[in-house]
Amino acid sequence: MSCSYGEKFKITIFGQSHSDAIGVVIDGIPAGIRLDIEKICDFLSRRAPGQNKFSTPRKEADNPEIVSGLVDGVTCGAPICALIHNSNRHSSDYDNLKKIPRPSHADFSAYMKHNGFNDIRGGGNFSGRMTAPLCFAGAVAMQILEEKNIFVGAHIQKIADVNDKKFDEVNVTKSDFESARKNDLTVLDNSIEKAMLERIENARKNLDSVGGVIECAVLGLPAGIGEPMFDGVENEISKVVFAIPAIKGIEFGNGFTCAGLTGSQNNDSFEIREGKIKTKTNNHGGILGGISSGMPIIFRVAVKPTPSIALEQDSVSLETKSNEKLSIAGRHDPCIVPRAVPCVEAAAAVAIINLM
Amino acid sequence: MSCSYGEKFKITIFGQSHSDAIGVVIDGIPAGIRLDIEKICDFLSRRAPGQNKFSTPRKEADNPEIVSGLVDGVTCGAPICALIHNSNRHSSDYDNLKKIPRPSHADFSAYMKHNGFNDIRGGGNFSGRMTAPLCFAGAVAMQILEEKNIFVGAHIQKIADVNDKKFDEVNVTKSDFESARKNDLTVLDNSIEKAMLERIENARKNLDSVGGVIECAVLGLPAGIGEPMFDGVENEISKVVFAIPAIKGIEFGNGFTCAGLTGSQNNDSFEIREGKIKTKTNNHGGILGGISSGMPIIFRVAVKPTPSIALEQDSVSLETKSNEKLSIAGRHDPCIVPRAVPCVEAAAAVAIINLM
Amino acid sequence: MSCSYGEKFKITIFGQSHSDAIGVVIDGIPAGIRLDIEKICDFLSRRAPGQNKFSTPRKEADNPEIVSGLVDGVTCGAPICALIHNSNRHSSDYDNLKKIPRPSHADFSAYMKHNGFNDIRGGGNFSGRMTAPLCFAGAVAMQILEEKNIFVGAHIQKIADVNDKKFDEVNVTKSDFESARKNDLTVLDNSIEKAMLERIENARKNLDSVGGVIECAVLGLPAGIGEPMFDGVENEISKVVFAIPAIKGIEFGNGFTCAGLTGSQNNDSFEIREGKIKTKTNNHGGILGGISSGMPIIFRVAVKPTPSIALEQDSVSLETKSNEKLSIAGRHDPCIVPRAVPCVEAAAAVAIINLM
Amino acid sequence: MSCSYGEKFKITIFGQSHSDAIGVVIDGIPAGIRLDIEKICDFLSRRAPGQNKFSTPRKEADNPEIVSGLVDGVTCGAPICALIHNSNRHSSDYDNLKKIPRPSHADFSAYMKHNGFNDIRGGGNFSGRMTAPLCFAGAVAMQILEEKNIFVGAHIQKIADVNDKKFDEVNVTKSDFESARKNDLTVLDNSIEKAMLERIENARKNLDSVGGVIECAVLGLPAGIGEPMFDGVENEISKVVFAIPAIKGIEFGNGFTCAGLTGSQNNDSFEIREGKIKTKTNNHGGILGGISSGMPIIFRVAVKPTPSIALEQDSVSLETKSNEKLSIAGRHDPCIVPRAVPCVEAAAAVAIINLM
After folding, report:
1. B29 vs C50, residue with greater confidence
2. How many angstroms separate the first and last alpha carbons of chain B?
3. Domain D4-355 class?
């Protein structure tokens, strides 16, 4: 496994869904920063389960316990270790999964990698729960970035066939993030919220699930950040984003759309605007040659539908190598897109802070 | 800059478009492997310019000179360094770009990063030419992977509005790669080749360019490969792929399509097939939880239209901070998608060999 | 700070002397290994304080709490996180040190690095206490190495002016380690133990301290291990050993002695012994060109006398920039060499396992 | 092999003694620095062979060819690649070594690591010649450090039984370096130079060799530099220094001497001197807790006698596994200590620049 990311702001994530605790070590935070713990908890609560009818009924406080790195609430230069305890575990729900892998889960691939010794309970270290420490790290990163007037925000751009409008890729502001977060679902256009909620509720009723797309923006990043060829802005954001389970694609700026355009349609002309060099459009998503251009960083990720569904599915027995039917019990979100929004923000923040 | 990637098969790329040479150091190759240099040259020639009417008229042999790491053609355990000399340089073509950045190029962002000291000639170290050493490394990686019956192949899945068929994500074979490479354009369905060539030719005539999509498959990778959370198969392939200039998006398996599906539509059931555990479908693109499932790895990348177009464009003067018009001289591909195909294969091979 | 080491067996250490807990995350342990926790605790107890009259009276159980990475005592492939709680803290002992740095401690250099925000209590993250998580990691590494018949052992080779005999560099065996550990001080020649204990007791009575030398051997390492130029056996052992506070030098084989010899005196001839290629002597300490030779790895480290002494010392005020007198209260070992023995073993084990 | 070191100033060294070229890639140099190439060549010439009667008669210009990273002599932000061509090769000298390993050389350990495929010619990539690219990188690092008033200098502190005086560890200055370099041997006290030269000449006459000790100082490093636990100043200097073949030990400050002292003898009191916080003595060698204290960094390394001696030696046949006699032909220094002086300086410079 490789549970560490980054050089300047290095995070090391540990734990399994049903171990005593999960957590993260953050190394590289300058000394002398007063962390706003309440703000971190607020951020974690955006990811936490049990918040509303369309997320899993498993309720966990997810309050982090910071065991090192702070003196009287201020960073001391030593690594921060934060623990999030795992209470409320129903490990017996997972007993039969040891033998019959869930379709589109990591059960089978992890079984092959770890010779059957992987922790199957709650998805082990492949659980979506492992994004909680990522969110802790992201929340810390954001507090440091915000001191430099860099802001990260994401919204649900699509669930099933219902689309939110996209960010205005040239003029997106921090207040766009803030209004979106006031809605039940983090959307820009609250006129589509009801339709999205219906898609989720329908999936729940049908013992099924739905996927979606999350769009994220990073504002205020100065031009000149990024370390190509291999540590450019796209390389690093992708590397962290794919640590979030269920993400299957990422595109920057207009992304896959550019494949159908001509150069004259796709190129972003420069102009002097308010005395500064800006591009008129932002098809490039704020990144040119792997380096920030000073325009908003914009990217979108595809989130697959929750693979744990209550409908009976076809699988196999790992023991007898025969075909089997599988019905998954336990508690699962019919749509993980809403809870993945802060995870995507956290991933972006962690990647960006490492490039600065 | 960050010009190195990998731990087990570490590559370090150097050079600029118009420096004396570009090249790559590869560390971690086991001793005792006889490299097939001719095969490496053949691979490089798939990327090389000047091959046909739709690529840049700049002709370069791109024959690598291996200055270290081999004894009588066999690896000796020391790092391999390969140089590719830059002949045929017309640096004066780029003189005015020092002052007026090309839209959707790295000129401006690199200027900001390097305080104006970046090498503007030929795009410097942001040039597509820097993919030649990546291809060298990829060709070496492929020779080692092929010994393990792992094969990497890509094709042009789309140019402008013309689509090739996609790989059969369950049954794709090595011979699919081989037939595609026999066509003028690397496509699976040669009935669409003429239309693609027309789109490129039209762009050229219009002093414009077109983008596209490349689809890549990795065959034979056993189940259990990948190091999540941060070094899973998706994380690593993405990290290397975004080292290729002009790539703006990547998706694995059905990618962004999964966002519109339900779990029951998207999940890939397991079954016993020829005595082995396989999935019936392969929406997951051969990767579950960041770990290979034993099914073909499938991913697609979006390639933007060549930003260097002969049409006059709006830009600015970096000196006077005023708006300017820009006409780009020099030699440029109206479509870089065909030459990017081996680069994507190389990126995949380098990422995969590092995970094994 | 940089609290991580290693690639294959990556350790990340966190905590301060007086934070809630200290601990370590270990990533890269194969799944399916049953850890012998009692053996780990035994190893930690060799480092723990309060064991006898010549170590600090601060008593801590140092029992690790393993919060992740195990299922029913067996590794599951996920990172192991072990916590060691800090009880028995007397933080007020350290109040005046915030202003007056202790000579030959990290107080001043850490103050300069962290702008005065470093955690001064108990030495913060510069405390010798931070070797406890290193020992945990080393104990785990040793269990894996022992499965491959590789054994690590160290002894006190010198305290003040009293010398233990050195390892027989050609014929040292595992039983040499075991007999040494049965003594009150880990020495090979117990006839010198009394004199060593007297030197320590004298230092204690004089409110002073004494230093020493520890010699360590790694047995059973096959020839061919090591990754020069930069990750050779000497490079890696040194890198980890200098993570132990108070180590000021390291030498391999005959070390500094070789500087006074001729080549014909220093060279280790090869011979066939019991059918295998061995060297007749082992001045090279089992390492040639950064790679193991199959002979025992032998190295020695210099441990400085405990800098915390009760005698009044000259220092300065960081606030007033004036000369000051300092008397250090608190609990301190008159000699840390005995407790450093398992730390050196742990460092060697962690370095070696990363090279395999 | 692991041929890369560093993050911020990353060097990647390639080549073998008898490959077409050896060289180094340096990544992370800021753009806009005019490199003084003549100064780099002067530095390389201090290491180069064939300079005087006590070094090997193999003469090589060692003039580096910089193939990338510069535009008109100024860094452009892209990695610098420098080649040093290998002329004057007598590979046949090494034919019998393929079968009979030289005592105290890497021949045997490399054979075991690389299954006999290692490049034996001239020592392959284990040759002292590989320090030439290290010196190139060090010379570049020093130019950047000198801009910050940080200076690195070393001298021969001992050859055989002849000792130079040591640096004044509190008051050493840059002019001490400069006067030492004016001598035939880089010594502080030129009254001992003749005796040292005699020891070398005697060794040569006796077909033997001698070792020695090099002492190095880093001046002007501000307090607060270093990243403990694992990337402290001692950890990093050691890691790079042990990349130089023949180094068998390193000690910082008073090093192994501290093992025989009491705390009250060894501790370095603080005092206010010229308005600044300094230590009265410098037994700690400028490093406390892995972090610079603002005092001169002082360390010494042990250099073993050249293992290649013309005297007949005992060895074995790798083919027949029988005892054999070996007489080494070829060209070898009777003492490599003089040529190792700039290598140690380069190692220190590369380690220090990575910590800043």
Report:
1. B29
2. 27
3. alpha beta
Identify whether the C-beta of residue B153 lies closer than 8 Å to the C-beta of residue B162.
no
Please state, in angstroms and rounded to a whole number, the distance separating the CA atoms of residues C88 and C118.
21
Is D218 a residue whose pLDDT tops 70?
yes
Please tell me the distance from the alpha carbon of residue C78 to that of residue C106, in angstroms, as a whole number.
35
Q: Give start-end residues of each CATH 3.60.150.10 domain in chain C.
A: 149-356
Per-residue confidence (pLDDT) for residue D207, from 0 to 100: 95
Confidence of residue B87 (pLDDT cuts 50, 70, 90): confident
Following DSSP, what letter does each residue of C50-109 receive, concatenated? SSSTTS-S-------EEEESEETTEE-SSPEEEEEE--S--GGGGGGGGTSPPTTSSHHH
B314 interfaces chain A, CB cutoff of 8 Å: yes
Put simply, the answer to whether B243 touches A249 (Cβ < 8 Å) is: no
CB-nearest partner of A67 from C20, C68, C115: C20
Mean pLDDT of the D162-166 span: 98
Residue of chain A whose alpha carbon sits nearest to that of B104: A267
Check residue C332 and give its pLDDT. Answer: 83
Residue of C nearest to A21 (CA): C67
Beta carbons of B73 and B351 less than 8 angstroms apart:
no
CA A104 – CA A59 distance, rounded (Å): 25
Q: In this predicted structure, what is the pLDDT of residue D61?
A: 64
The Cα B242–Cα D156 span in angstroms is 49
For chain A, first and last CA: distance in Å? 26
Q: In this complex, which chains have at least 3 CB pairs below 8 Å with chain B? A: A, D
3-class secondary-structure state, position D269: coil
Tokens of C168: 């027989």
Q: CATH number for C149-356: choose from 2.60.40.290, 3.30.1360.40, 3.30.70.1350, 3.60.150.10.
A: 3.60.150.10
Q: Residues of A with CB below 8 A from C19's CB?
A: 67-70, 78
Q: What is the pLDDT of residues D261-273, one digit of tens each?
A: 999 999 999 999 9
Tell me which DSSP letter residue C330 carries.
Answer: S
Q: Cβ contact (<8 Å) for C74 and A3?
A: no
Amino acid (one-letter) located at B246:
A
Contact D112 C294 (CB under 8 A): yes
pLDDT at C55: 53
Instruction: Work out the pLDDT band at D97, boundaries 50, 70, 90.
Output: confident
Q: What is the mean pLDDT of chain A?
A: 94
* Percentage of residues in chain A having pLDDT higher than 90: 89
- Report how far Cα C107 is from the mean position of its chain's Cα atoms: 21
Q: Express each pLDDT in C17-50 by its tens digit.
A: 999 999 999 999 999 999 999 999 999 999 987 6
Separation in Å, CA of C73 to nearest CA in chain D: 29
Interface check D238 vs B, CB under 8 A: no
Which residues have a Cβ under 8 Å from the Cβ of C349 and sit 6 or more positions away? C138, C141, C142, C145, C152
Which positions ≥6 away from A257 have C-beta within 8 Å?
B302
- Asked if residue A68 has pLDDT above 60, the reply is yes
Q: Are B133 and B343 spatial neighbours (Cβ–Cβ below 8 Å)?
A: no
Check: CB of residue B313 under 8 Å from CB of residue B212.
no
Q: C222 contacts in D (CB within 8 Å)?
A: 112
Contacts of A231 in chain B (CB under 8 A): 2
Output the average pLDDT for chain B. 94
Residue of D nearest to C213 (CA): D259
DSSP string, C240-255: HHTTSTTEEEEEETTG
Interface contact flag, B271 A160, Cβ < 8 Å: no
Q: Strand, helix or coil at B4?
A: strand
* Residue type (1 letter), B280: K
| A123 vs A166: which has the higher pLDDT | A166
- Residue of A222, A289, A314 with shortest CB distance to B271: A314
